[in-house]
Design brief:
By secondary structure, the chain is of the alpha/beta class. Helices cover 41% and strands 12% of the residues. It binds iron/sulfur cluster.
């Protein structure tokens, strides 16, 4: 329980957000807690946590508390003669007034968001679309009204939930101020989706993705190179490209598979039931997928796990959030893969088992 003096700043912040909402760029606003599905075999994000919806009143209270913190940071910064800009001195002044804020999970996030321009927000946690649409719309409107400087609001969403929502509901959510959805496609191979307990088929991914695009969302689809190991490599590459071709999302983001501690896949690898791809085999899978990709999306490698390097030791692909524009830059990506295949690439230590 926060002390009465800082109760007006009381809000909660979740742990996860996509790389493109990282650094200091996005205000993290928690609409739900954890993952309502929570069964994917490769995922360790929320495994020990229980999913919870949050009430509209609770979420609005969080947004108001963030606004109170922003206003006080701005007011104290202005006293230091910095006009509207938030300053280091303003932050120090607020911390001196309320030292408890040193332990506030969201203070640094809000401060960095403000000094980065206060432009984007990310709605946490794993599938905000699971909220009743009218409630989601109400809190999105409140967020936009409270922070008019926002130019982009994004969230995670599941294909299955998107497919279940009516087109008019999705349009209303979009119009209430949710601009971009990050969806975990992972693979377009039905057998691999089943084994990974993703809870959706390739057709479900296509239906959900197309509905999101039709409603006007910017759609960002994540896939996992290497997810099927050696046994599924070709099917994974080709069916993922086919599925993404059918959706043609705004963004396709590569998040290479690495068996995480505590997941069943870690045991499957340790016990020899799953053979991981070597770095060279990963690139061959990537080559097969990219060759089959016929989209007008931006293809991105913005996750740190895209570690491959060229013969000079530089990263093979840019880690920029906007990646490569397809089809124009498809030859460039294929040329970089060809360069990578000439390199003696090893798993970096941070990805080793
Ligand atoms: S839906 Fe996303 S967050 Fe939930 S278990 Fe699957 S990968 Fe993890």
């Amino acid at each position: 329980m926060p002390s009465p003096a800082i109760q007006k700043y009381d809000f909660e912040t979740g742990v996860f957000r996509p790389p493109s909402e990282g650094g200091s760029f996005s205000l993290l606003v928690r609409f739900t807690r954890n993952c309502p599905w929570n069964r994917c075999e490769f995922c360790a994000m929320y495994k020990t946590e229980r999913f919870e919806l949050r009430s509209v009143a609770e979420i609005k209270q969080d947004i108001d508390a963030m606004a109170a913190m922003c206003n006080d940071l701005k007011a104290l910064s202005a006293k230091g003669g910095r006009g509207d800009s938030v300053s280091h001195e303003g932050a120090v002044a607020l911390l001196s007034r309320h030292p408890e804020l040193n332990h506030h999970q969201g203070f640094a996030m809000v401060y960095h968001w403000l000094i980065s321009g206060g432009k984007t927000a990310f709605v946490q946690d794993a599938n905000s679309l699971i909220m009743p649409p009218d409630q989601l719309i109400e809190v999105l409107r409140h967020l936009r009204q409270t922070f008019p400087s926002l130019t982009r609001v994004t969230s995670y969403g599941r294909s299955k939930t998107l497919a279940q929502r009516k087109p008019e509901e999705l349009r209303a959510i979009r119009e209430a101020g949710l601009d971009r959805l990050h969806v975990g496609l992972e693979t377009g191979d039905d057998e691999l989706l089943r084994r990974m307990k993703k809870g959706v088929t390739a057709q479900g991914h296509i239906e959900g993705g197309r509905k999101a695009m039709a409603a006007g969302f910017q759609l960002s689809e994540y896939w996992m190179p290497g997810l099927g190991g050696k046994a599924f490599s070709e099917a994974h590459a080709l069916h993922t490209a086919e599925t993404l071709n059918a959706i043609n999302p705004n963004y396709i983001r590569s998040r290479p598979f690495n068996p995480l501690p505590g997941t069943s896949l870690e045991s499957a690898v340790a016990e020899g039931h799953m053979q991981l791809l070597s770095p060279r085999e990963q690139l061959l899978e990537l080559q097969q997928m990219i060759e089959a990709l016929e989209v007008t999306s931006r293809v991105c490698f913005d996750h740190a796990a895209n570690y491959w390097t060229d013969r000079s030791g530089d990263l093979l692909f840019t880690h920029g959030y906007e990646g490569y524009k397809f089809p124009e830059e498809k030859p460039k990506v294929l040329a970089r893969i060809a360069e990578g295949l000439l390199t003696d690439i090893r798993h970096p230590t941070f990805l080793s088992l």
